[in-house]
Design brief:
By secondary structure, the chain is of the alpha+beta class. The protein has helices at 6-28, 34-54, 62-77, 83-108, 122-145, 190-193, 199-207, 211-220, and strands spanning 112-113, 116-117, 152-159, 162-171, 185-189, 226-233, 236-244, 248-251, 254-256, 259-263, 275-278. It has two domains: 6-145; 152-278, Beta Barrel (Cathepsin D, subunit A, domain 1).
Length: 279
């Protein structure tokens, strides 16, 4: 008869779910807030423990699994127009990791029952994830470094102790510059940089369509990091975007000195990128 230590089993699943959520955020080009990821991972660990202890086929049914997975993704990344794409990515990353662990368990002669891992030790799980994450990071970094102009690359933005990574289109036609700072401007969707912003700033930018009004409200709230960036585009004779000066920006590993403008209407998420950078 198999003995299950509930606390150990819960912590194992919490750790794995947390790491998978972080990897999903990086691959999707959106930041995963650590506290949110930890809370979602705790939900995943509690669900796994419930399934294991109850022995009920109802709790282990695929619709319930998918529902719990969607809830975890919503807890970490919030509701947006691309949430289902992020959710599919999370399920794909989870399946890939589960397959790697199961293959390793079989090679070591450990038990695998059905679609679930038997008793795989915590050190073995950590080792499997370390290898999985190292391979993923190496491939992801190599792809980012070798993207050509006109393609996409990973844009990493650091601001106030936080960092996000987004997929950016490298556009030779983007010559937008900030009049106030005389810096080139990278344009990012609001949802892509949301993890960098305070809750109050994010609320103001989401609920105040007019940029001038939004900047006034931000200054009244004590946030003086935003400034206006005038622009023109197809169908827009003149417009203005709120922008901020990040602590650091890298594009495919290359350091950039740019301001970041926030596009609240999105930046072609359907095309697989959330930012536009001039090159």
């Amino acid at each position: 008869m198999e003995v299950i230590y509930a606390d150990e089993f819960f912590l194992e699943n919490l750790l794995v779910d947390y790491l998978l959520l972080v990897v999903t955020g990086r691959l999707a080009g959106v930041g995963a807030k650590r506290l949110r990821a930890l809370a979602a991972a705790a939900l995943g660990g509690a669900y796994a423990l419930l399934v294991r202890l109850s022995g009920s086929a109802l709790w282990d049914a695929w619709p319930i699994r998918i529902l719990v997975g969607l809830l975890m993704v919503l807890m970490v990344f919030g509701a947006s127009e691309r949430i289902f794409r992020v959710a599919l990515l999370f399920f794909g990353v989870s399946a890939a990791f589960a397959g790697a662990v199961m293959a390793g368990a079989l090679m070591r002669g450990e038990g695998v029952s059905g679609a679930s891992i038997g008793r795989v030790s915590l050190p073995a799980l950590i080792l499997a994830f370390a290898v999985f994450y190292a391979l993923f990071s190496a491939v992801f970094s190599a792809v980012s470094r070798n993207r050509v102009k006109g393609g996409t690359a990973e844009l990493a933005i650091a601001f106030r102790g936080k960092k996000v990574r987004v997929a950016a289109l490298m556009d030779t036609g983007n010559s937008l510059r900030s009049v106030l700072t005389d810096l080139p401007v990278a344009v990012c969707s609001l949802e892509a940089v949301a993890p960098l912003l305070s809750r109050e700033a994010l609320y103001i930018l989401r609920t105040t369509p007019d940029t001038a009004d939004a900047l006034v409200k931000l200054s009244e709230a004590g946030d003086y990091s935003f400034f206006p960036v005038p622009y023109r585009a197809v169908g827009v004779k003149s417009g203005m975007l709120p922008a901020f000066r990040p602590d650091s920006v890298t594009l495919g590993g290359r350091q950039l000195d740019v301001a970041v403008a926030v596009a609240r209407s999105g930046v072609s998420d359907a095309q697989g990128y959330s930012a536009i950078v001039g090159v």
